[in-house]
């Protein structure tokens, strides 16, 4: 067996034997699969699409298909596009809060149009990303990631308890023991596998936990496979399935999150080269990663997919295996493309009862918040730092929780003010720029 220790495949252009490369590629897919499809399910629900409907299945298909295509943009590359590093792309959680709000009020047409335009802006950032990195130190990016996680946690609890009457469960069964038993099964199995096993079982802990919850839900009569039987074997891709509807507020909100997503990708590119080759990412690699991020988002939006970004959990696989081969992740991207072209796979995912999904996203969304705290831990907790954290989160989450507090603002401004992520990011950036850095330490 070939040596897969650190340094054996530290060159992105080398490839392990196919007997190792294919399982390693599949491991990348397992590590990100659940996180990749979850945002589409949430945004579809916010838009009022029936759980398990053909429209929801289509959004799930596009999430898988364009995660694979965006990954190929990164690993194979075209001209300046693509870092040509083992960076796995997937649907971004960062956009969920903004897109769910837009989809609920203005529809998927407005939300996806904003994704297309935001993706174009994201793409253009590739040429200037190195010049604006100073606006997004760990203090700002950590706050934004934390705000995303905290915003999403109530959604996870609602799903675990059975959703609402507008979803697949009846309102009177909300919070029932049956729903919570399924959700807790997902959580317990995921935690056991994550902390008491190694290798593929640990990396795919959430996915296996979801399968365990799915099995219990099936035994309790909560699963309906009707949509699976009706689904075809080859998907039919539709350009602009919800039309093209421009709304300035939606575009600004998505674009702001796109900028934050671009900075996250810079961090992931740097973490990948550090983990796999013990070096810093070059300006060319960072620019290429940003170009691929934006292009993947824009193209996905055209066909009904949500924005893509680099997946941090897959960086952990690089560090664990020491295999930095981009061709391994190319295999993973190809697997996702195949999954996206088979509607029955999307229908099986869509048949998952909400408590099953809820158990998984309690863990995932909690980890998003924890990731934000981990980034913030890089900052020294001075009085200045704590003021920025306190004021930014108070505005970002407070206005989201009490949207009527800004009910008299113009539509564009109100969309931004109640999106949680945008006001947190804006407040953190402004305060970080204007507050003196020599304030008394706490």
UniProtKB/TrEMBL annotation:
<keyword id="KW-0472">Membrane</keyword>
<protein>
    <submittedName>
        <fullName>Xanthine permease XanP</fullName>
    </submittedName>
</protein>
<feature type="transmembrane region" description="Helical">
    <location>
        <begin position="203"/>
        <end position="226"/>
    </location>
</feature>
<dbReference type="Pfam" id="PF00860">
    <property type="entry name" value="Xan_ur_permease"/>
</dbReference>
<feature type="transmembrane region" description="Helical">
    <location>
        <begin position="356"/>
        <end position="376"/>
    </location>
</feature>
<dbReference type="GO" id="GO:0005886">
    <property type="term" value="C:plasma membrane"/>
</dbReference>
<feature type="transmembrane region" description="Helical">
    <location>
        <begin position="93"/>
        <end position="125"/>
    </location>
</feature>
<feature type="transmembrane region" description="Helical">
    <location>
        <begin position="177"/>
        <end position="196"/>
    </location>
</feature>
<feature type="transmembrane region" description="Helical">
    <location>
        <begin position="58"/>
        <end position="81"/>
    </location>
</feature>
<feature type="transmembrane region" description="Helical">
    <location>
        <begin position="29"/>
        <end position="51"/>
    </location>
</feature>
<keyword id="KW-0813">Transport</keyword>
<comment type="similarity">
    <text>Belongs to the nucleobase:cation symporter-2 (NCS2) (TC 2.A.40) family.</text>
</comment>
<dbReference type="GO" id="GO:0042907">
    <property type="term" value="F:xanthine transmembrane transporter activity"/>
</dbReference>
<feature type="transmembrane region" description="Helical">
    <location>
        <begin position="134"/>
        <end position="157"/>
    </location>
</feature>
<keyword id="KW-0812">Transmembrane</keyword>
<feature type="transmembrane region" description="Helical">
    <location>
        <begin position="246"/>
        <end position="266"/>
    </location>
</feature>
<keyword id="KW-1003">Cell membrane</keyword>
<dbReference type="InterPro" id="IPR006042">
    <property type="entry name" value="Xan_ur_permease"/>
</dbReference>
<keyword id="KW-1133">Transmembrane helix</keyword>
<feature type="transmembrane region" description="Helical">
    <location>
        <begin position="415"/>
        <end position="435"/>
    </location>
</feature>
<dbReference type="InterPro" id="IPR017588">
    <property type="entry name" value="UacT-like"/>
</dbReference>
<dbReference type="InterPro" id="IPR006043">
    <property type="entry name" value="NCS2"/>
</dbReference>
<feature type="transmembrane region" description="Helical">
    <location>
        <begin position="328"/>
        <end position="350"/>
    </location>
</feature>
<feature type="transmembrane region" description="Helical">
    <location>
        <begin position="388"/>
        <end position="409"/>
    </location>
</feature>
